[in-house]
Write a structure and sequence with these properties.
Elements lengths: L7 E11 L4 E7 L4 E3 L2 E3 L8 H20 L6 E15 L6 E13 L12 E4 L1 H5 L15 H11 L2 E7 L1 E4 L2 E8 L5 E2 L2 E3 L6 H10 L9 E2 L3 E9 L3 E13 L11 H8 L4 E5 H5 L8 H10 L12
Parallel strand pairs: 1-6, 8-15
Antiparallel strand pairs: 1-2, 1-4, 2-3, 2-7, 5-6, 8-12, 9-10, 10-11, 10-16, 13-15, 14-15
């Protein structure tokens, strides 16, 4: 898919955000010359497994950090594939129009970096300082940054749209809500990022039918939109729009252990749990911080009566 149409370049981008400084790490690239997120071309190999492809992106990002910062300063504690962005731009080297495909990997370093180096190998800049380097920015400030840097960051920080499935069951102890384990090791409502103008209702159906191979009936009710800003671990302050959809499984008794929904999630390797409404209202540490911002809207949505899930 990446070789069709105009010339395409695929690039792995390593993004390191320092929460204490509230700044992003940029390394000097003598090829351009200028400061940019550490980047490397996609390795010249074909990978058919999406999970293996993401692991290769993470390995490439770690390699970029080690090479740009040195084996000690560039040692990576953790790296996670985050997103794939497509941008059309003009190559600074050839002057030709190129379709760039950026695989973005967020990373945390083992050792904190000093604020600066005499040789200027790297710098820390705030998001605003990076975005202002874009000549199209109304408060443009000329800086020695590559256009890749402000383009990638602007795309990452733009309003994030997510479809969220609110799956509720009524038990003798009160309401419980289905949550799944995120890649950050905390539980959140089943969710998918939105893009390509696919409506939230359809994405939620995909979440269960395609990703978990659930074969029963799914009813997704019209969405409730919640907008919020949130401080994130890997990118700092971000804007989110959550499309909350009450999601029903009329063929299932969700109180029955091992029902078809739970069995499908188990087969798909999806770690899940039923979270009591008290923990939605006041999320404990095992829940994502985002649950707190959505709790009022979620708890205000109607839940199934005790026997509504029976066939």
């Amino acid at each position: 898919m990446f070789g069709m149409g105009k010339r395409t370049r695929r690039v792995v981008v390593a993004v390191v955000y320092d929460r204490d400084r509230d700044r992003f790490l940029l390394a000097y690239n003598p090829r351009w010359p200028g400061y940019t997120f550490p980047t490397r071309p996609w390795p010249a190999q074909v990978v058919y497994d999406p999970l293996e492809e993401r692991r290769l992106c993470e390995q490439t990002a770690c390699q970029a950090l080690r090479e740009d910062l040195g084996p000690t300063l560039g040692e990576v504690a953790e790296a996670h594939w985050m997103d794939r962005l497509e941008v059309t731009g003009v190559s600074g080297r050839t002057g030709q129009s190129v379709r760039y495909v950026y695989d973005v990997v967020t990373a945390q370093l083992v050792h904190p970096l000093p604020p600066e180096t005499p040789a200027g190998r790297f710098v820390y800049l705030t998001a605003q300082e990076i975005l202002q380097a874009d000549p199209r920015h109304p408060a443009h400030v000329e800086r020695v940054l590559s256009w890749t840097t402000w383009t990638v960051l602007a795309r990452l920080l733009e309003d994030q749209q997510a479809a969220v499935a609110v799956v509720c069951r009524q038990t003798d102890g009160g309401r419980e809500y289905l949550m799944t384990l995120s890649r950050h090791g905390r539980f959140f409502f089943p969710a998918k990022r939105m893009g390509d103008e696919v409506p939230a209702e359809r994405l939620i159906v995909y979440e269960f039918k395609l990703d978990a191979d659930y074969t029963g009936k799914i009813v997704v009710e019209p969405e409730l939109v919640v907008r919020m800003e949130q401080q994130t671990r890997h990118l700092g302050q971000r804007r989110y729009t959550f499309h909350l959809c009450r999601t029903l499984f009329p063929d299932e008794d969700l109180n029955l252990p091992g029902n078809r929904l739970e069995a499908a999630l188990d087969r798909a390797g999806t770690v899940f749990r039923w979270v009591p409404e008290a923990h939605v209202a006041a999320p404990p540490d095992y829940c994502s911080d985002t649950v707190r911002g959505l709790s009022a809207a979620v708890l205000g949505m109607p839940c199934l009566p005790p026997d509504a899930g029976s066939p």
